[in-house]
Write a sequence for this structure.
């Protein structure tokens, strides 16, 4: 039996054909998978299973980084800790002082909004997540965080850091989640210029911390150094969080739109930890259906009622 | 007596793929990103050339799916590319085996061009068209790394008698 088997599988010149049919089937299978995966959400189970299989690989890659962080914590000298503590205390005092003013402003804002009969802005809940050290596909601006659907992370959730909006969760697997940064070529975020209230769209591109503003007219009131904050239109991102600072604005009369680029407020290339944002009211529900209600049609209707 | 039913050396093959996956997402500084060889494709080419009776398009497909899950690409993108890589390598494995190393490098270069073109094509349909240097430099780097990968994997294969 063994001799027979050995004869059936010659070692040196095994010329088994590659199996054209099998290859063709696998090619069709990959194309079908891609098409289904493009219609997001339909392959969630398969993604979850595969990401659980490859999770140890991520853990191994992240291990030296985690050990380094742990070691710097353990080996920090008393003096360094005291210094850090002092710095943190003064930072905290500074922030608290600013917050005092903020509390007064918030009250004033609530009163004004009540007078205008606009729904008050409700602050959301925030929790910290760590980035896993891993380089993903170089053409997409993706990061992996160590919180998953088990921790309540969901696809579409806003991710912040201490300076501004980082991006959104594009897939929540059980143990980890994948965050697409706002600078990704496929991303666009609704922003408004903090100084003037001018609304526009900031879209991602090739560079990691650059956004471009392709839909600004030549007459737009905008200048370098202007802060762009999220406008909350579209209901995807919470309103009022810093997104980017305009770094370059150039009017070109020959073209319908001006050239403008902005540098992201959040530190997209060097951060180690991010903040996950849970809105108090689920934003996805007020997204498309309710937004037009606050736009000109509604005010027109009100005006029509008056006379 | 050699028994073929429990496959021999699965550990070595799986280990080589594990190492390739780890190296694929190992953090590198931004400028070094384009010098990263496509490790999983290299390992697939090696096993298809020297172990064609066991490694082929199905292994390529599974490795591609894992790579897709790991790097956050569309599920099936790398799978498609690696199926084509495996098929090409299987198709010419008898010729390539007797080539001198520099000709093998050239063959690997051609296979990697197919691989990168598939990814370029799919990414282009999704709108990820930027960064041509990042797209095509790894093809050359991968071809240059090929002799060293062969050296290491051939030694592993001999030592653990993977056949």
């Amino acid at each position: 039996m063994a001799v027979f088997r050995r004869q059936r599988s010659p070692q040196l010149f095994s010329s088994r054909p590659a199996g054209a049919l099998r290859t063709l089937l696998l090619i069709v299978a990959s194309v079908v998978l891609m098409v289904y995966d493009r219609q997001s959400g339909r392959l969630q189970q398969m993604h979850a299973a595969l990401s659980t299989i490859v999770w140890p690989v991520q853990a191994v890659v992240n291990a030296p980084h985690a050990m380094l962080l742990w070691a710097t914590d353990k080996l920090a000298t008393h003096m360094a800790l005291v210094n850090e503590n002092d710095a943190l205390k003064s930072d905290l005092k500074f922030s608290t002082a600013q917050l005092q003013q903020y509390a007064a402003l918030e009250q004033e804002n609530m009163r004004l909004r009540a007078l205008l009969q606009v729904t008050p802005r409700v602050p959301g809940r925030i929790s910290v997540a760590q980035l896993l050290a891993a380089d993903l596909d170089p053409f997409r601006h993706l990061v992996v965080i160590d919180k998953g659907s088990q921790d309540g992370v969901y696809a579409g959730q806003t991710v912040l850091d201490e300076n501004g909006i980082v991006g959104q969760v594009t897939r929540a697997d059980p143990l980890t989640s994948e965050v697409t940064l706002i600078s990704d070529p496929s991303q666009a975020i609704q922003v408004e210029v903090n100084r003037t209230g001018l609304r526009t769209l900031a879209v991602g591109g090739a560079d990691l911390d650059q956004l471009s503003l392709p839909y600004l007219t030549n007459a737009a009131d905008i200048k370098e150094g202007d802060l762009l904050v999220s406008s909350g239109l579209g209901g995807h991102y919470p309103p009022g969080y810093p997104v980017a600072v305009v770094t370059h604005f150039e009017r070109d009369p020959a073209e319908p739109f001006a050239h403008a680029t902005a540098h992201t407020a959040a530190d997209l290339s060097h951060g180690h930890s991010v903040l996950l944002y849970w809105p108090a009211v689920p934003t996805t529900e007020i997204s498309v259906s309710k937004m037009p209600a606050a736009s000109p049609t509604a005010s027109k209707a009100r005006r029509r009622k008056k006379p | 007596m050699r028994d073929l039913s429990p496959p021999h050396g699965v550990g070595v093959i799986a280990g080589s793929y594990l190492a390739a996956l780890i190296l694929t997402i190992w953090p590198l500084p931004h400028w070094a990103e384009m010098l990263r060889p496509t490790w999983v494709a290299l390992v697939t080419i090696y096993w298809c050339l020297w172990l064609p009776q066991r490694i082929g398009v199905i292994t390529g497909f599974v490795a591609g799916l894992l790579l897709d899950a790991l790097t956050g690409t569309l599920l099936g993108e790398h799978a498609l590319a690696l199926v084509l890589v495996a098929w090409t390598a299987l198709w010419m494995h008898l010729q390539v085996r007797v080539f001198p190393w520099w000709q093998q490098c050239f063959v690997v270069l051609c296979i990697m061009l197919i691989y990168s073109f598939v990814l370029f094509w799919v990414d282009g349909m999704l709108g990820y068209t930027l960064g041509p240097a990042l797209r095509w430099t790894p093809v050359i780097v991968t071809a240059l790394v090929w002799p060293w990968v062969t050296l290491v994997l051939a030694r592993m294969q001999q030592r653990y008698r993977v056949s």
